[in-house]
Design brief:
304 residues; mainly beta; Jelly Rolls; 2 domains; six-stranded antiparallel β-sheet; five-stranded antiparallel β-sheet
Length: 304
């Protein structure tokens, strides 16, 4: 396998940074992107501390490739899911020398450096050499309306590989479902997804009224995948697989993570077209009356 050394590229074409606006980071087409790191700052903040991610952006960040939104999630959700793969992949805050100088660095990973096989790690890096003249590669970052003087910068880790075609990438697909009780049942989990996509994981985030999934039962093709597995049981299983889920049923949970390839094998991913029946039964920590976001990660063609 050929080796392609990496470079660090500052992304200088950033438009529309302002209080309550959506900033657009236009990424140069051509390189293969391993990751992009957002630099979040409020230069008018009355403290030297690095800002919380949610203090700078608290609505969905979107990654647009070609003409498709390939990822959509809150900055805090990106940070949480990154951290689940290892504490070293979390956002990183650096205090400033003066008020407003603090910066928080939030990575968006395309390659997956937490995987044990090198070809699995960088094979998911995002190619852009196939994009046409009217296609874009953008990161859209909504700026929190309570910032004073928001500052947004970004840089990327890239290499020069290009196959000339779209490569399979990890897409993040959010689904917000209503909650109206202490339990919730979801069916046909992957309905509408491209048949050739492979499902990697589902993050069941805390509800809008701060309840968390305390137990889950998952059935696929009439086979029980999770048999009323509690939050703590699932957390221990993932930790034993070298992952880093946070929280507990007592201290407070952040998300219930269902990870099909916790064994680090792509063979464990679930092909959408092979899942003819699915049912997910959830029990919450208490009765919920709001919404729950489920972020599904699917490996597949970014043009679909």
């Amino acid at each position: 396998m050929a080796f392609f050394p990496t470079s660090i590229l500052h992304l200088r074409d950033i438009q529309g940074v302002g209080v309550g606006a959506t900033a657009i980071i236009n990424c140069p087409k051509g390189p293969r992107y391993r990751r992009i790191i957002l630099e979040l700052q409020d230069s008018g903040f009355g403290s030297t501390a690095a800002p919380a991610v949610s203090a700078i952006t608290n609505t969905d960040i979107k990654v647009v490739l070609g003409s498709k939104v390939i990822r959509r999630a809150l900055g805090t959700q990106i940070d949480l899911i990154n951290t689940t793969n290892g504490a070293q992949y979390a956002s990183y805050g650096v205090a400033g020398a003066a008020n407003g100088g603090g910066i928080t660095y939030l990575p968006i990973f395309f390659e997956e450096p937490w995987r044990k096989r090198a070809d699995f790690q960088n094979g998911l890096a995002l190619e852009t050499g196939w994009l046409g003249g009217n296609d874009v590669f953008q990161i859209q970052v909504p700026i929190q309306g309570t910032t004073t003087t928001p500052v947004l910068n970004a840089y990327a880790i890239v290499d020069g590989f290009s196959s000339g075609n779209p490569n399979p990438i990890m897409k993040w697909v959010p689904n917000d479902v209503n909650t109206a009780a202490a339990t919730l049942s979801l069916n046909n989990l992957f309905q509408g997804a491209p048949a050739t996509d492979l499902v990697e994981s589902m993050a069941l985030l805390n509800t809008s009224d701060a309840k968390f999934v305390s137990k889950a039962r998952l059935i696929m093709n009439n086979t029980v995948i999770l048999d009323d597995v509690t939050f703590d049981e699932q957390t221990v299983m993932l930790k034993n697989a070298d992952m880093n889920p946070t929280g507990s049923s007592v201290a407070g949970a952040n998300a219930y993570h269902i990870v099909f390839d916790h064994d680090d094998l792509f063979e464990s991913l679930r092909l959408v077209k092979s899942v003819t029946q699915s049912e997910l039964d959830l029990t919450f920590s208490a009765a919920s009356a709001g919404t729950m976001r489920m972020i599904t990660q699917r490996l597949g063609d970014p043009t679909q």
